[in-house]
Backbone:
């Protein structure tokens, strides 16, 4: 949880191409985490996974992750706009 | 898709207690839809599902929905704030 919160914060605050990075835990099974990630362009995603903060998260949590599913998705309504910030 | 886009738009624009209503379709299986819904308080959810626009969506799509899962979730980081609007 600590790693995930940190990587989300650093990514949103330092990577302009990271538009959303919002994580939720299932109430019935709190180890089941879903993260909504939105990138301005594909290159923003590639530079994100190459970043030092992402690699710290990835390597630091590798032994805790039993399964991982990456679902590539399309917004249903392109006019439905999410803005994501870290509150100070 | 049309019903889902409509109910999202009307809910965000007319229900102050609806904070996010953001739908995405899986690219590999576009019939697999995920909606991130956030409500200010539980009563906002209850008034949402009782609303005329939600009931139009619900009744209009009932015969198309093969399976539905409602996952109650908790934000990992309470300072990670999503804002959701419909762009004009």
Residues:
């Amino acid at each position: 949880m600590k790693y995930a919160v940190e990587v989300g914060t650093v990514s949103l605050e330092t990577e302009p191409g990271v538009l959303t990075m919002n994580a939720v835990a299932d109430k019935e099974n709190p180890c089941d985490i879903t993260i909504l990630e939105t990138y301005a362009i594909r290159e923003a995603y590639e530079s994100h996974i190459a970043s030092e903060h992402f690699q710290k998260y990835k390597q630091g949590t590798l032994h805790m992750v039993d399964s991982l599913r990456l679902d590539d998705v399309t917004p249903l309504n392109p006019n439905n706009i999410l803005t994501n910030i870290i509150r100070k």
